[in-house]
Fold these 4 entries.
Entry 1:
Amino acid sequence: MAKPRPVTGINPTRRMRPNARRILATRIDEVYEYDGLVADPAKITELHNMRIAFKRLRYLLEIFGIAFDEDLDPYLGQVKAMQDLLGDIHDCDVQVPMLEAHLAWLEQQEALSVERMLSSTRRARQPADESVALERFRSRLDAARRTDERPGIHTLIAVRRAQRIALYTQFTNEWRRLKHDHFRQRLETTLGLH
Amino acid sequence: MARAWEVNGLSPHAGFRTAAGRIVLTRWREMISYRDGTVVGDDIEELHAMRVSSRRLRAAMDAFVDVFPARSFRRYLREVKRITDTLGDARDLDVAIEHLTILIPDLEPDDRPGIEGLIDRYEEQRRTEDVRIQALFTRLEDERFGESFESWVTKHTGVKVSRLRPAPPGDN
């Protein structure tokens, strides 16, 4: 996670508003640092960091809202919407590797139980009839394997990948719209930064 | 999501230091109000509310970092972060279990065993998280972290929690 940039010139003995302005100006800058970088859907870390930057900005707007004359709620709503959207993208980015790891774990569990099954088969007395012995072995092997658990996980991975594509498209559209609507300039004007 | 508690006596023209004390102490008490419900664990929303409050507290501490001495600030923030992270791990599992459980009725029969197996695994991991949460709160209590945190905020902001009287929405 990207650390927040230190804010210079804060004077705790002053009132809330001038200090809040300095802090908010820095955090707005941080959000817009990711503009351009997030034009690539593969930039998972940058998208995550942009979400964190939006989150920091959102909390600060909540905390310092009282210090400003104008209502910051409309800005807050838009910042929260972007944070949520990037959060949903992040969930997909985290879940897919987790599900892949679960598939690998299933394989490990399967290997262990097959190993256990084989060693107990070696110790057990085998039926004289070869076909009966083979049938018994097959049924034990089937019980030890976990093949029935894989399709659901593969389906879930496919669903999350499709959701990720749709969410990213939604994000780029929203981000473009915010820029088109001069969101930054309007917010900075409201905060008295110009 | 649980509503944030109102910060009593906070005015638009408040001094930065006073605002820091009022906001940080209110968020602290808000977070701690969910502790018992989180430990009991009957309602996953209690843990969620505590986690959200802990994030609000962290954000408030970050916003007012310049009011506090750097060294002690880092120590207290680290502990608050530990609370958020510990609750976060449990919350992620609660959400995953809930989402997967909702999916089950609409799944193809072939897909069910996999998702049910995954839910079982997450539920097992979740039980481990309960133990971690319990251990964290016990340690914080043994170390009297709450008293120490409140005194620290008071010392550097002049705001006393007894005068501030933070309370849930509707109780003021």
Note: The radius of gyration of chain B is 19 Å.
Entry 2:
Amino acid sequence: MIKINIDAKICSGCKTCEAVCSLWHEGMVNPLFARLNIVKHEEIGEDIPVLCLQCVDAPCAEVCPQEAIEFNKKTGAWIVNEAECIGCGLCVDACNFGMIRMNPQKNTVFKCDYCGGDPQCVKHCQLKALTTEIIE
Amino acid sequence: MPEWNGKRLLIDLDRKLIIKEEIDEKEQQKYLGGRGINVSTLLRMVPKGIDAFDPRNVLCFGAGLFTGTTVPSSARFNVSAKSPATGMLGDANSGGFWAPELKFAGYDQVVIVGKSKKPVFIKIYNDEVSLEDASHLWGKNVWETEQILKKTLCDDTIQIASIGQAGENRVRIAGIINNLARAAARTGMGAVMGSKNLKAIVVKGTKGVKIFDPRRLTKLNEKLLDFMYQSPSFTVRSTFGTSFLVELYQGLGVLTTRNSREGQFEGAEKISGRNFLENYVEKSKACFNCPVHCGHYFRVKEGKLAGTEGEGVEFETMAALGSKCGNDDLESILLANNLCNQYGLDTISVGGVISFAMECYENGLLSSNDCDGLELKWGESNIIIQLIHLIGRNQGIGSLLGEGVARASKKISGSGRFALHVKGLETPEQEIRGLKAWGLGWAVSSRGADHCRSFPLAETTWKAKEAEKFFGTPKAADRFSYEGKPEMVKWYEEVCAVGDSLELCRIAQVGLNMPMDLLAEIVEAVTGWNLTEHDLLKVGERIVQTERIFNLRNGLRPIDDCLPERFLKETVPNGPCKGHRYDLSEILDKYYQLRGWDKISGWPKAKTLERLGINLTNSKNI
């Protein structure tokens, strides 16, 4: 299993992670569909990467009436099974971090899936503000 | 149909009309985007002979062909219009996050004509585009404007390009600022925006940018990133940004000092990138999708200016407001940088007019009576700060200086020899008597004195053998030699024009050696067009020639392709360039030959235009 660590102090705020994430998952560059966000406060020079914590007892999975959010033991990510998702949005309300969101075109939710174990955001983070760690 | 946007937003402020149109695919293939599409639009739409502040002037915001994709360092946009500084092509370029947002909203270009009766801002939320009242924003600086707009529109993630008081006041050295500190600064584009009563363009886009072949693009990007990371300059560019140039230029004796009178500055160490990084920088900052992150967030922690913080500072600003004004107080430069961003001013031109005024003062052409009681002595950082306030507010001596050195020198008798400009644009921070290719680049640049139109790094960074292979003589790699420089400038101009149309950052594209053949492949992956390296360079040549025609039609004469008297007549008094001056006559002729320009009229040959497919029949500009 992996875990993504964040060092907000060195993040340059370039949003490359958002760009490559959306391209990887949606085939287009659109930060709206990125699975993570860089929250920027330009007036104080702050850039904060916000991404799914892959909670141990994930509230999104717990509230899902379809049990469509499944834990992948290999990667350590909670994965949305789109075929099972009915777009009720309970999970969207359950997540305190806004890290599971609705795709209005598909009427299903989307969230970070660690790109199957090789997260694109980490791979393209030049300053290593995002890094992966292998955990048990 | 191409897979990406290819859309233009046409806004008529007189009639409050908003029109969306497809950009002709042939036009895009000929000019790509950004700077290229902008000049093609200007040539078609700007009536000949109008004043830059005439409502009929056309203000274009062009994002690049690569902007908003995953191609690294491509987040830029060009703002173009007839320039109030030069009366010819006005064109400025900025990074940040504004241009990608415009692409995400579905547009490549915004073209604005007319003049609003009342102050307005343009709001672009995907397909919803509207003109909104901006009376509450008029008189506010850029930082206040961004804050108020984010608050009233209840969204922190909108992107804003706006003018400060300088643009409102039609100060001819005013720029347009986005993301608080990214500036489309040169050639007075902020003043044109102000003359249209347009305060800001707010963009929010959630439609995204489609890519013809995403998998191929991802692979090609990896290849491109390898080139960038392997470049010997990557470490210094990504750590110091451009600020390392203070020390480098000092060593070469090309650091503009006291209005380019000297080539070395005794206070260079104090305003160096090293001092900046060690004592003021908190972290690196980047534009959208850029691995170079050359920007910095800085903070002054103690002393008189404690609390001064912001993003920057570029070398050009450090030298313009530092050595060029004899100022060795780095903290004052940081404050001056912020003030310029708040008022919406071009730091290069601000440094240019202040150093001009200081030299006039030294020579008794300006007295403190003329200058609101200020004593314009070299290196007085307080004076520099006060002058920036006066220029931004268009008050007192500031209203004269804000006109730029060319106009100001006409009102101060005997000051012509201190007015450093080409075609009306203040000179940037190279001592060209020791950098001959850069000097030629200034003289022939389509937007007046400017370092980014040609950016001939080969002169100082290439080995003699390499230079011989490329430019026909090993002397091209000698910065004091004139040989091979016309060839070098011509080639770089075309490379840079391509870069400005894809909207690649100059530092990444030229500074880190992005290969043209790879860029051609990337164009294909993004758009599906089949373009070769040769085709791309032809686009570059086409843009240079189109800009030339725009300028010729707006009064350019061959004698305007010149350099300020100082560089031609005076020798550098100190440092490694001691004793050198600039002799333009020989290399200018050679450059004209290479471009196919007539020596008397300055016009390109009909054959050249035909070869490049430049069509002049469909143009208001005749």
Note: Chain B has a mean pLDDT of 96.
Entry 3:
Amino acid sequence: MSNRSDRNSEAQCPHVSGAVLQALSVLASGVTTKMNAAPDGLWPNFLTRLCDASQSADARQVQDVVDDMLREGVSDDDIAGRYIPAVARYLGDEWLADRAGFAQVSIGSARLQGLLRYLGPEWCGRDLVATADAPRCLVMVPATDQHTLGATILAGQLRSAGASVQLELDLPTKAARTIIANGDFSALMISATQRISLDSLRFLVDTIRPVKPDMPILIGGNVLDQKIDMRAAIGVDVATNDWNTALRVSTSKAMEIRTASCGSRL
Amino acid sequence: MPHNEMTWSSGLIPMIEPEIITQIISSIADLAFILSASGQILSVMTSPRFTTVDDFKKWEGDAFCDHLSIESVAKFEPRFETYVQTNKPVLPVELNHPDAQTETGFPMRYTFHQIGTDGSILMLGQDLRPVWDIQQQLVAAQIALERDYEAQRHNDTLFRVLMASTEEAAVFVALSSGEVSDCNPAATAMFGKHRNDLKGSSFASAFDAKDGRDLIDRLTSVSTDQSTQSMTVSTRAPKRDVVIHPTIFRVAGEQMLLCRVSLADGNHVQADALNSNLVGLFENGIDGIVFAAKDGRILSANEAFLNQSDVTNSQGLKGRAVSDFLGRGTVDMNVIFENASRNGAMRVYLTKLISEHGAERPVEISTSSLQAGNDAAFVLVIRDANRVDSSKDIRPQATDVDMVSLIELIGSQSLKDIVAQTTDVVEKMCIETAVEMTSNNRVAAAEMLGLSRQSLYVKLRKYGLLKKDA
């Protein structure tokens, strides 16, 4: 009798039992989680498992964790846009604290990059064909600042939101200048780490600015961890690690161009 | 003795002559520094296999940090300071020295050793360039791969645009299995199926039984026959005569057929059946659909909503406020409209629907913001929450791994403590959600939670949510 009554009460309050399960999981995760605090809304257990798998000897493990996450209803957008960057930051912190060596972190990052492909084309809006008036973004990683993960994720997020994106990795300044001169971009987004000097970035911005003076130039990546005013230091317009902000800047620029071109036709 | 120090199996190492120590250091380290307690370089030693000491002689007298990259300074300073102050073993540190010639610099791994009594510290460095080279090759391979993906993406887009703009139905069929591998929108309209349903299905099954028999063999014959280039067959549903122009080709070793399909009467099937489908969804959908103006007036509502609200005809609804039917009235409406305006849409909002006769039923409302002419409008899709399968709860369920953690949790704390903490977590989650849903309108949030404003304030402070909100 009491069992049936329990089942009834659970059936009536599925959301409450869901909240309790989540709450218990939050408490339980405190026992095992490796990260000091999981970012809002992310499952600490999955984060911990992804962190472990990214450094495991078995390369298949990261894919197994992602399979479990998808099965539990975590969206591929969240895995690519929130979990993978969180694990990448964790690996970076491990290197800073010398708990993980250079080689381990490199292999871990390569595995995370591989996960983006494992998730399939849908998460980055491959099925979407950007409309003619969509914002056009050039996402670039400057030459010598060799990294791929952050810029690839950003490109996927922008594409999912309908933007038209050209992704250029390891791009020399001269080549960037040519691409921008020949292209019609609403914004340039530079992804940079602290490995590249501010002088190099300043030179890049100074070289590109005269080519398209009105085009907003944004910068993101862990170069922003230095907590300095990037606008003053290297001459960019916006410094952000929020892809929504980056998209807003390029969308408003695209609208401005569209309005101007309509005006000139009238 | 720290666990990471070596021990001799018998007795202590005998005294070693200074020149022998130099030889030993030279053989175990690629680069060695003696630093003062303040981090100044007192002396440098290099292994011949690494470089000549002259390259580093000029570093003497400089601060060690002056020869580190920015992120390495942040790693080195606290580690060095800890070691100097505590004289206890610290983890080896991986650092990067900038190099004007290579721009990327060169990475080293250093260990710290106290020598003598004057506070000077010996740092033994191991050259990490071989690992760095491998890492660079890995990154270069990744970049090459990403460039390939970008090129593939570019071609995919061209292919998609071409397929979508072709009025003739185009279907790719794998010869070995007879299954559809891809098709264009004109083909989905022609065969009345969604692309995902067509893909992987037998191409022959889309045609009349008599035409479907040996269809692939006959198409193959036609494609290789110089005299005939097409064949006429009848589709199964909707039933009509079509002409197929097959082309045979190979891709990655597999034989494929491209079948271009057109109506035998020469007309094109209208690919865009969206409008009629949308009207069908509105009229026959099982969930209530309400279009509302931004001031809350109902513009139109479907039959399912009339049933949910016990209103007899749709004319009686027009012009009435949607808040009349929501459990928390204008509070619900403002929360929904505010969020949908801000984000374009608001997923699953739980409330109660009040019928014309005062009956209440729990509902889930998903709202999207639309542009109707010059004005904003909202479409609310209202689902009876009693009918929602609890197994499809939007919150993730506890996983096997969670259960393992739960067991550990139960082992580590009393039930009373777990329940108390769980209550706090649930309370915090609910308050955070309410504050977010009301865009930090604490009066509305308190009303939603059934709390006084003062109680909400106390709880916000208890959970450290005040600072975040500010």
Note: Residues 1-14, 31-36 of chain A have pLDDT under 50 and may be disordered.
Entry 4:
Amino acid sequence: MPGAPVLDDIVIDIEDHGGRGGGSGPPPGGDDGDDGQKRRPFEPPSPRRYYTGIALGIVSILMFFMALSSAYLVRRATTTQWIPIHLPAILWVNTLILLGSSAAIERARKRLLIGDLPGFRSSWLITTGLGLAFLAGQLVGWRQLAAQGIYMATNQASGFFYIFTALHGVHLIGGVTALIYVSQRKIDAKKVPLAVVADVTSYYWHFMDGLWIFLLAILYLGK
Amino acid sequence: MYSSALACMVTHDSHDRSPKKGFLGSLGRSVLSFDHKVIGLNYLWLALSSVFLGMGLSLLMRIHLVWPGAHIPLAFGSASIPARYTALTMLHGSLMVFMVLTTAPQAGFGNYFLPLQIGARNMAFPVLNLFSFWATVVSLFGITFSFFASLESGLTLWVASVALFSLGSVCTALNFSVTTVDLRAKGMTLPRMPLTAWAWFLTAILSSLIFSILLAACTLLLSDRVVGTQFFGMPQLSASAIATPSWQIVPILWQRLFWFFAQAEVYVAMLPCLGIVSHLISTFARKPVWALRAVVLALCGVGLFGFCIWGFHVFENGMNPYAPPVFAIVAESLGLPALILLVSWLGTLWNGRIQLTTAMLFAIGFVSLFIAGGLSGLFLARYDLAEASVNDEFIAGHFHLVMGVAATFAILGALFFWFPKMFGRLLNESLGKAHFWLTFAGVYCVFMPMHWMGLLARSQAAPGSSLAYASAGTMLRKFITVATIATISSQVIFLFNFVWSLRRGERNGSLNPWRATTLEWSVASPPPPDNFGRVEPVVYRGAYEFLVAGGGEDFLPQNLAPENVSLSEQASFELTDREGST
């Protein structure tokens, strides 16, 4: 089926069986088949769906994090004994790394637009590398907190810190997976243009970046 | 008139293909298929098994209410009865709300017929579609098995399963939205979309918002249960909060998150049913939908308002005292879109040439149940009034009438309507009608008395009223239970009809036995894997072009080219042009 990344060993048989599915018979009214001229063959699926899809996906993920944030804010406002945790300094470094990766992915897109494929690939690689560096930095931050004896269940502030960073990290892993997939896929083998895939991935990546800044902000301001 | 030419095409059966391709053969094709029709059908099987399981559970509950001493094997076992009864209620509710009401009208019929109705070949993201289905299956197993586990681990399993279900639902919603926005065939503008497609689209938008929230809430709860965090746990209370008894404080946050999801969820369950009913009523009254655009706006209104009224479930838990009237007003305002829908249904029926097929009976039955259940909803939206006048049994009666029965009637109507398209055979009409009447009478007997019991509980009409309540209550309770047993028994008629017709049902003689206008009726029964073949369908008109007068057919299919409409039909169509046409 067009547009569907079908697994190689499970094939849906869509060959036209003597016009059975194809012609679908004459419409009522005794048509003699002339209207076949007005019916166009199915065009290859437009890539618009990927843009719509990522936009709606981002909205859903945003709602998810909004629910978590509102829980955080309600909790923060209704307790007296809020024990703030000291955010590890590496988080700020990570933020810069993530911002750098957003800049890199934008550079990659621009390179692709002007047709500079090697430039695109190198920028894309830099983005992937910085994304992985961010994840590593998050883990380092976790280790630092654990070294101080602050774990997820220690108190409410730590719980929220860990769950925010963990869930953001999980979504970012998804983003990194997409980045790796894009860099590995063959350019002409699929029906979806590389520019579309790169665009859609970059939207997600920027969203992850912005989301991180938001989460860090409320964690910091809520301390 | 075209049926003879196409009679040979109607028995297309994808499972007849020789299993050369596909390493798992026909089983693999049916459970690992990316075809939206196969996935939709699989959802329907899932919903069908869940509804019977859920009905069985409700039977157990009713029996236990009336005969508490009855020993029911398996259900209660050795664990304490109150805990097991609560678990039973929870399982019944989860199965019915998640696996039947959220699944059958949207993921089941929607997956099957949305691409067909808008002229697409498949959903926008078929792989994601398959993932959603399997997430739902796994969550069904999780929810069911959580009942048999010990209390603590069972609850954790339940929460995890619901989280997985939410994830699947968000993905399904994404698929539906993108498909409707981007995959419509040429000429299928939004105003020409059938109301079913509109309803699926609006439901998808709402679902993608609310299931994300449920997923977040479940994630926090799971973290509490598994890791030991205190997101919902006993907080250190602020000075103002200390004034409220602690047993009320603790669940506040969970309640707010949960009800933000749950209240909108009931409209997610209802919206596809509203679309289906409008569609059925128009088709079987042979009239365009009365005030079509108003109906679309009303559906939007139901979704929008439904999203904003969660607060009336949490008034007792420290909410701002100025909140109740605000939420009550918004909740009451739901009456407006509901009224528009009602007037449209009645306006469509008015002067129509009504064909009382089983599908139409279910659609009209829906209207009756929607009024009955909906009116009590208007009353319940006034929290102060409701709290003083009725107890929870009234609320149970209300939501069962709208969700449990009205929505189910819409699902059954859709099933009777689309069965010929999905299976190439017709369900038996006599059995269908018998089933309808028995069920219709039965559900009123089951759920109306619950309203009375709710009123009785708070009634202070006469001295010694508590005694009167006790005896009246017992009698009513027994009546409800007997009615439940009778109604559930009459579902056997449906089950027999369904299974029998799958095998031996009367073969569908034409592509379009109901003479409907939408695109799914222009393809074979069941449709081929790529729906429309190599050629994309073109849509020339709206979905409800029915004619009151005129020779020949009394309807114009959406994909019939204008030059193929015979002159006499054209003339009569222009004479009777009405708002339904675009």
Note: Chain A touches chain B through 71 residues (CB under 8 Å).
